[in-house]
Specification:
By secondary structure, the chain is mainly alpha-helical. It has 2 domains: 3-71; 92-185, Winged helix-like DNA-binding domain superfamily/Winged helix DNA-binding domain (Arc Repressor Mutant, subunit A), CATH 1.10.10.10. It is built from 7 helices and 4 strands; from the N terminus they run αααβααββαβα. It has a two-stranded antiparallel ribbon. A two-stranded antiparallel sheet has the order 2-3. The longest helix is centred in the first third of the chain and has 34 residues, at 3-36.
Length: 188
């Protein structure tokens, strides 16, 4: 197995771990919502699924222990269209608070560029060299801007940003203001 192939194998493994983690978070959120709504049957189904995912995650960690020696010392060769290994880029969720704070500072809504300028100012000391590097598909766009825009989409899906804002304008929702206030009370 060449270095590139084993590196791609490890990247695929880490991508699978990441996706299982995302699904676990989604199921936990759905279970909490079902429980809060009094739908105990849906909460039980979510709990069973979460337990299965936790077991799967344990199995994947064991697989990773077996896989690691096979790929040790053979870093991934990045090809166009492949993903960075987990840990090389700042996770999308890390952009949530800076985006929401920027929107509050800007009066609740603002054009994309204004929000991203504030997000960069808030996060510049945390961004890695990979975050600052240009995207292979868009050499003029640093990776962090793309990740922040995907984070904006996550916030919209979660209801923390309004989904009916005009094109090119980001707008915090009341749920987003409440979530931000709760995070700040917790010292985030």
């Amino acid at each position: 197995m060449s270095g590139g192939e084993s590196g791609n194998l490890w990247a695929a493994y880490e991508l699978l771990l990441e996706e299982v983690g995302r699904e676990t978070e989604r199921v936990n959120r759905l279970g909490a919502e079902a429980f809060a709504a009094g739908d105990h049957e849906a909460a039980k189904r979510a709990l069973a699924r979460a337990e299965s995912l936790k077991e799967l995650q344990g199995d994947l960690e064991k697989l990773g222990q077996r896989l690691r020696p096979l790929v040790a010392g053979q870093g991934p060769v990045r090809r166009r269209g492949t993903r960075l290994r987990k840990g090389h880029k700042t996770p999308q969720r890390a952009y949530w608070l800076p985006i929401l704070r920027a929107l509050v500072e800007l009066g609740g809504s603002a054009p994309t560029g204004a929000v991203l300028d504030r997000v960069y100012a808030a996060m510049s000391d945390r961004l890695s060299e990979h975050d600052l590097a240009p995207l292979p598909s868009h050499p003029g766009c640093p990776r962090w801007r793309n990740i922040a825009q995907w984070a904006r989409n996550d916030l919209r899906v979660e209801g923390l940003l309004k989904g009916d804002s005009p094109h090119g304008v980001w707008e915090i929702s009341e749920a987003g203001r409440a979530w931000l206030a709760a995070q700040e009370r917790e010292g985030q």
